[in-house]
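Attaching the record inline, Q. Sequence:
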Amino acid sequence: MLRWLLELDLVDGPVPWTIWLLTAVGAIVLLLRPLRRRWIIRAAIGIVAGALIGWFLVVWADVTNAFELPLPENVKWWTTGGFAVLGLSIVSLWRSRWWQKVIGILTIITSVLSMFLGVNLAFGLDCTLGEILGVNTLESAGGFAPPLTGPAPTTPLYETWHAPDGMPKNGETRVLSGDDRIPSTAGFTPRDASIYLPPAALVKDPPALPVMVLMMGLPGSPNPRAVAGVLNGFAAKHDGLAPIVIVADQLGSQTQNPGCVDSKAFGGVETYMNTDIPDWIRTHLRVLPDPQYWTIAGYSNGGACAFIYGARHPDIWGNIANTSGEPWAGFADPASVLKTVYGGDQAAFDANKPEAILAEHPGAYDDNWAVFSAGGLDQKYGPANRTAADLAESAGFHTTFHLIPNATHSGPGLYGGLSEGFTVLYPRWGLAAAG
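Structure, as predicted:
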């Protein structure tokens, strides 16, 4: 029962539309009272005061950076409208009949739920209650093809691969738990990673494929839904070919920021991402071994870590895919990361910025690629990613930068950025012809 509740679709299913309809009906019923002057004034005060409070809260959140990112424009309208109905519902509780009070209380509940669902829709990142709460409801993984033995193929895979009969149309997503859990050896306690296996990995004798390790944002969880949705589209156009993707946790929880590094406060985050996960991949998955086929990727907070890890470990990660990423770890809240992770050591904090790391590895990136993207309307992370791309290009990366039209730091920016990244990297991985 709990799993059914956690997997309810809160974006495209009947749940949000039912709640919104109930809220609208409740507001209409509350308004349909005899038009006496006292009621008209009270209703107007409730609606206007509620709307102003909702609008003020969103403006305050943006001005104070309360959520550490710009809020999508639609959040203002959902919050303003929701608080307007909430105000109407509250004032309807006075001088009313018992059934009007009941409808008022129910409309208070549905208006709050309507705002919650509308704001979640505006961000476009989480589709289920489980995703919002960071609870992984996927089934356990297992049954991986054995790792590649012998020399790796030298011919691009798209030239030799032919999809066999019976190959699944879409890939599969699983949680890496139990015996398949990726061990953390340096004191960091991550949430279970997830994995996306493309259609080509699900056949009887699958080819060795590229591999990507993806990190999501803060708050966020290692959920593969977004990348799986994008890659299923690419796989459909390329005979089932796509990279295997591990969505890994660089945070440990939805509320902490370890700053992408090993620390006394959070343990060996960087060791987990750059030693433990690569070791697990080599012993569990059939992937191509050359760094050309290994990609470290991230969104928002995860993008900062991806840039840092790709810069510090170019021998592991031949590619970086940074989608709406922070330009350096702690960008959204530097004071907190400086204090908690570094104990106030400003020099150590600055040494973990990509600019400093790139300078430590001159000439190491000539064969490495970096793809940066951000929403075209994202006034904070758009310019930051442009700067990050310039740094990567100056250091020697084969670099591309993309602005996603009409997108902010939310779902469309994530989906568009992933799509741009795969468009660039598919030929690099040998999954599609160049150009």
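The chain has a mean pLDDT of 92. Residues 2-123 form one domain.

More tomorrow.
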